[in-house]
Write a structure and sequence with these properties.
With 188 residues, the protein is α+β, with helices and mostly antiparallel strands. The protein contains 6 helices and 6 strands. Helices cover 29% and strands 23% of the residues.
Amino acid sequence: MRQYPIANEAIPSISKQIDSFLKKGILKECEGPYNTPILPVNKHQLDKDVDAEYRFVQDLQAVNEHVISLQHIVPDPNLILGYLHGHKVEPIKWGPEREKAFRISKGALLKAPASGIPDHTKPFKLYCVEMKGITNAVVVQTLGPHERPVACYSHIIDPVIRGTPFCIRAVAAAAGHPLTDLSKLLVV
């Protein structure tokens, strides 16, 4: 992430703090592909004759925009189907209330971005990527001229695999998806 422009009046105060942190060993100078932007925040001074002092704050909101969420992309079917309560104890007595719950559940499942119904007579394609120790995959099928998602999957890769080179992690990511089906599967 790029550093935000810093106001000229904040530079001396921020530079002094950074130098102090470097001398104390709190910060270490390094070059890396990742950074956290800092925001200089003005400390309120009671004495107006004293130069304004700034402290720096890390902008973690900018960092969080680049973090992969561990939440499901599609709704949890068990949660949605939980609206049909009572089915585990006694047989469901169908009525207007159950019909409404069924329609809400069906609508929620069909609104999910990756909830196309798979056709088991057609081959599947698995698109898989590994980033920062997390595998994300989408299973698609051809529908006319386009590919339509029929399932999404993500999981954290085993710690042993995380320490291997990228090419090994990619193979492990693709192999780590438990897909059981009688159709052909092309891994992309």
